[in-house]
Amino acid sequence: MSRMFTRLNYRACVAVIALLLYPCFALAQSYEQLYSDYRGSLYQIRLIEKSSNSKAGLGSGFQISDDGLIATNYHVVSEAVHEPDKYILRYLSVDGKEGDLELLDVDVINDLAILRQKGKPGEDHLRLAHTPPSKGETIVSMGNPLDLGMTIVPGTYNGIASGSFYDRIHFSGSINPGMSGGPVINRHGEVVGINVATAGNQISFLVPVDKLVALLADFKKEMAAGNGAIALQPVINRQLLKNQQRIIDQILDADWQLRPLGDALVVGEIVPSIQCWGNSTDDEDEPIQQVAKGCTGQDVVYLSETFDTGRVEYEFFWLESDDKLASSRFYSAYEDEMSGFYPGNSAGEDDVTNFNCKQQFTSHPRNGTADKTKNDDGELQTPPKANGNSEPAIARTSYCVRRYKEFPELYDVFYVSLTIDQANRALVSHFTLSGFTRESASAFTEKFVSEIQWH
User: What pTM value is reported for the model?
Assistant: First the structure.
C-alpha cells in the first residue's frame, strides 16, 4: 500500500513538474518561431562614411511594404540628412544580403525615418498593428545589438510612459545600442512599437506604431500628389515649429503652481512633462547657505550627435548669509556661485549663432503686483510700493538669444535674474528654452517673470 502510494505520488509530481515547465518550453518555442517567421523582414542599417567606405554608425530597421520601404529611427540616419555628401546608407539582411538605401521621409519629433531599398526589394515585410497591446502583455523587441547579429528580447508592455512631452511606450526589456529602429511585435507578429531608447535595468522606451502609421500616410500622400522627392529640411523645419507651438500652448494654458523658496514664491511643476527637484546646503561652515529648486522637461528632440532641441528648464536659488558676512563678500561669493550658468541643450557653431544678450535692471514689486523695468534711457522706473508698505525687489537681469542657422525661425533663449537689493539675501531665477520662436519665448518670459511673488 505504501509502495503504491509512493509510486502514485512520484507520478503526480512528475506530472506537476511537466505542467509547470510546459509554458517555458512553449514560450521558448514561440520565440524561436517568431524569429524564424519574421527574420526576413529585419535589417541592420549602416551609416557608411564615403571616403573610407567604412561603417560610421549602426542601427536596426524593418521592411514595412512589398516595394521595399524600411522603417528605422531618425537618429540612426541623421548624419546622412545633415551631411549627405559625406555619408551613404546601406542595409544588411539577416541572410547577408547587402544593398543601398534611399532616405525618403523623416519625423524628427518621434525619431522615425522611412527608407527604400534600391534595386530588388526584400520578399518579406511586417504588418503594422491597428490597436495597442494590453497592459502587461508580452511583446518582443528585435534588433542588432552591438553588431552581434539579430536578437530577440521579450518584455512587457506597460502603456505610454508618463512625464514626457512625447509619447513613448514603457517597455520592460533590455534594448541595447544597435537595436535602435528595430521592430517590437505582438503575438500576432504585428509591429506595436519601434525601439528608441533605454534607461537600463530592464527599462526601455519605444515609439508607438501609430506615429509610424501617420508618417507613412503622409509620405504616401506626398507621393500621390506627384511632387517628386521630399525635401527633408523644410519638413524638419515644419515639424519643429509645430512641436514648439504644441509645447508652449500646453505650458501657457496650464495652472502654474507656486512654491515657497526663501522670501519668494517661485514656479513649480507647470505640467506633468516637467519635473522638479530640490537641494540645499547643510554645511554650517559655508558662508552662504543655498536652497535650490530645478525643473526640466524629461526629453528632447534629437537633431544630430551634437545638437538637440525642444528643451524647457528653469531653476531657482535662494542664497542667504548671516549678518556677520559683509555685503561685498556676500555678492562676491554670489557672483562666483552664479557664473557657471550655461544653456542646457547641446549645439555647436555649425548649428547656432552666438548668443546676443541684453542686460538691464528690473524691479519686482512685492506681494505679487506687476513687474516693472527701466525705461529706454536706462533709468530704473520705480513702481509704487506694493500695498503701500514694501519696497520692490531689484534685480540684474540678462536675456540672451541665439538663432538656429538651418531653421532661422527658431531660437534658444537664456534668462538669468539676480536680485541685488538686500545685503545678505538673494534670489536667482533662470530658464532655458531651446528651439522656440521669438513669440513663444516672449510669452513664456512674460508669464515666468510675472508669476514670481514676494512675501
Answer: 0.85
